[in-house]
Amino acid sequence: MKEDNLLGKTVDIKHNNEIISIYQSLGEVKVKKDDVVKQGDIIGKSGTSNFSKDLGDHLHFELIYKGQAVNPEEYYEKELGDL
């Protein structure tokens, strides 16, 4: 977990298959560094950030695959082992 003045509380999860999922603008974080999490675990709750205050509580989600940002919508409903 890290806290950024612009993006708020952020959690990066490194998965075994060259995937990193990034959760930003969190209001509450329920995990700490080196925790092992699995699909479906609650890692935090949405919040706000200085970058997008006018949106109110929300979550900014990024997916990085092999070092490149990808459209996360293409990966919804999939198990990590299927990627």
Number of domains: 1
Main structural class: mainly beta
CATH class: Mainly Beta
Q: Could you state the CATH homologous superfamily? A: Glucose Permease (Domain IIA)
Extended strand count: 6
CATH topology: Glucose Permease (Domain IIA)
**Which residues sit in consecutive blocks of at least 5 with pLDDT less than 50?**
none
The number of helical segments is: 0
Description:
The protein is mainly β and 83 residues long. The protein has a single domain, classed as Glucose Permease (Domain IIA), CATH 2.70.70. Helix content is 0%, strand content 40%. The protein has no helices and six strands. A hairpin with a 2-residue loop joins strand 5 and strand 6.
What key attributes describe this structure?
single chain; 83 residues; mainly beta; Glucose Permease (Domain IIA); six-stranded antiparallel β-sheet; 0% helix; 40% strand
Short description:
By secondary structure, the chain is an all-beta fold.
Architecture blueprint of SSEs:
Blueprint: E1 2-4, E2 8-14, E3 19-29, E4 44-46, E5 60-65, E6 68-70
